[in-house]
Amino acid sequence: MFIADNYRKAKARKTVASRKLALISRPVSDRAALPHPERIRSHRVADGVATIIADASGLSQSEAKSLEDDLRTAALAQAGVTEARVALTAAQPSRTLIAIGSGKGGVGKSTVSANLAVALARMGKKVGLIDADVYGPSQPTLLGTDAKPTAENDQLIPVSAHGLKFLSLGQLVSPGHALAWRGPMATGALAKLVEADWSDAELLLVDLPPGTGDVQLSLIQKSRPAGAVIVSTPQDLSLIDARRAVDLFNKMSVPVLGIIENMATYACPHCGEASHPFGTGGAEAAAAEMGVPFLGRLPLSIAIGEESDAGRPPAAGAGPDSDAFAAIATKLLAAVTH
Q1: Of 338, 295, 266, nearest in space to 112 by CA
Q2: Is 232 annotated in some ligand binding site?
Q3: Is 246 marked as binding a ligand?
Q4: Domains defined for the chain, CATH in brackets
Q5: What does pTM read for this prediction?
Q6: Burial 59-87 (b: 16+ CB within 10 A, else e)
Q7: Helix (H, G, I), strand (E, B) or coil at 258
Q8: Which of 5, 59, 119, 255 lies deepest, with the highest CB count within 10 Å?
Q9: Over the stretch 26-72, which tens digit does the pLDDT of each residue have?
Q10: 305 labeled part of a ligand binding site
Q11: Furthest CA-CA distance within the chain
């Protein structure tokens, strides 16, 4: 009897202790009571302290801070909770950086960069575009916005336009003012753009200045592009410098993903007859000679010029010009993923 009585008392004490423990440490079972339930990965309450682990992947710093504040406020509103601890985790985005260069200025590199970025975004990719052309930053005009980037915790927050995010050196100075920067200043500014808060961008296209100077070398040495694209017109004068650009990337062990021939064919708006003011096929022949892929050719089009000046990238619309950019973007994406 004595043993049985002691056993019953011990069992009763254990049951009471278990109930108390259950009250002290319990999962927050109703996710609907907390905001952003799709981001909550773990949530418990112990001794009046709510501990919540949430996934902040793809959020900017301000959005992540808002998520943390919302969860903390909701947790403290629950009965029995006197303290709330919120930990945010985030998967590191896998980002591919692609340099877009040209040996010579005036070949339409920036226009091609903007439209390729738009075309890739329309294909469902999360795209960022950096306008690193110190001598002629034109992406704010091409993308139709003069909005200035903001900054949080010493990081620039890119501007959104046409389904992508972009930053430009042109956003950092007043319109019409020259960027009279020496090499160290230019490369320092480029680093700020590359290290900005690109959030969940998968592809980061960098519109480089023409030539093979400090900005190109700095990008290659510090950021290691996955590959480079060279833009050239078909004429020999342009191709001489395009070859130099290919040679630079080859020497720095950056794969050249391909050459794009721009301003290849002009169709008369009156009779429709095609002509070739700069020749045709030169970039394709040079690509074959150097063993570099040829990504395609783009026309010398009045519509592309007018739409670009108006901040309406042709790749964002419909028609033959949009289709031409989409075809090249498809080849570029295939080259990057393989």
Answers
A1: 295
A2: no
A3: no
A4: 24-89 (3.30.300.130), 96-337 (3.40.50.300)
A5: 0.73
A6: bbeeebeebbeebbebbeeeeeeeebebe
A7: strand
A8: 119
A9: 454 455 678 888 888 888 888 889 899 888 876 777 888 898 999 99
A10: no
A11: 113
Exposure of 88 in the CB half-sphere (CA atoms within 13 A): 20
Q: Of 187, 182, 223, 186, which Cα lies nearest the Cα of 205? A: 223
User: The tokens of 111 are what?
Assistant: 């226009």
Neighbours of 267 (CB within 10 A): 15
Query: Any known ligand binding at 107?
Result: yes
Known binding residue 238? Answer is no
Tell me whether residue 11 is annotated as binding: no
Confirm or deny that 296 is annotated as ligand binding: no
Q: Give the count of beta carbons closer than 10 Å to the beta carbon of residue 28.
A: 19
Q: How far apart are CA 113 and CA 117, in angstroms?
A: 6
HEC profile of 118-165: HHHHHCCCCEEEEECCCCCCCHHHHCCCCCCCEEECCEEECEEECCEE
Span 163-183, pLDDT tens digits:
999 999 888 777 766 666 676
104 is in an annotated binding site: yes
